[in-house]
Design goal:
This protein is of the alpha+beta class. The strands form two sheets. The chain has a four-stranded antiparallel sheet. It has a four-stranded antiparallel sheet with strand order 5-6-8-7. Helix 1 packs parallel to helix 4. The longest helix is centred in the last third of the chain and has 15 residues.
Length: about 190
């Protein structure tokens, strides 16, 4: 007899089905700070994860409420392997299992796939309001806005390793905003 017990948490399986401003925002956030993980070895087919710095834990609670997830939010100590000093930080995250029910719509509508770092595709959205909601979510995850008060400029930087998504953001900006754009090593900078 196993000491392991099965814990089943619920969430709104239809959350991603019909694009709207709320799920467009969260798709952008997940494109930046999320992951779709395939745990084949553990008999858990697909897991959706949103992970942020512990200081941003309120954001994870907002996502949990939006998707109506009944499971916990967890926090762990993370040591950055990319830093020569082994920088430590605290990460808060949510992991939602049973995402196999949503994999097709996450891929086909939102462009979110496992191992998305270089393969993230733009969402297939038919209006600029939804595109802007996605953009705002993405900026919340992998963007920054800075101001140069002396030069009178505001800079918006969006980072990604996916050439497709950077080109999509560039086209969106050119269509909607009258700003000068500059692409630099995986970033799109609006000045």
């Amino acid at each position: 007899r196993s000491n392991l017990r099965q814990i089943t948490h619920t969430f709104d399986h239809t959350f991603w089905n019909m694009p709207n401003p709320i799920n467009a925002y969260w798709a952008g956030e997940l494109a930046a700070d999320g992951a779709l993980i395939n745990f084949k070895k553990k008999n858990i087919t697909m897991v959706l994860q949103l992970a942020v710095a512990e200081s941003d834990i309120a954001h994870v609670y907002e996502f949990k409420a939006a998707i109506k997830y009944s499971g916990p939010i967890k926090t762990y100590d993370h040591v950055c392997s990319l830093s020569k000093y082994g920088t430590k930080s605290r990460i808060s995250y949510i992991r939602i299992c049973q995402m196999w029910k949503c994999v097709d719509v996450l891929r086909d509508t939102w462009g979110i796939v496992p191992n998305k770092t270089h393969r993230l595709a733009p969402p297939k959205l038919d209006n600029n309001i939804l595109r802007l909601c996605y953009l705002i979510g993405y900026i919340d995850g992998d963007g920054s806005i800075t101001a140069d008060y002396n030069g009178g400029t505001i800079n918006l930087t969006i980072a990604s390793s996916s050439k497709q998504i950077i080109e999509w953001f560039e086209a969106l900006f050119e269509e909607i905003f009258p700003f000068r754009l500059r692409a630099r090593r995986g970033s799109l900078i609006m000045e």
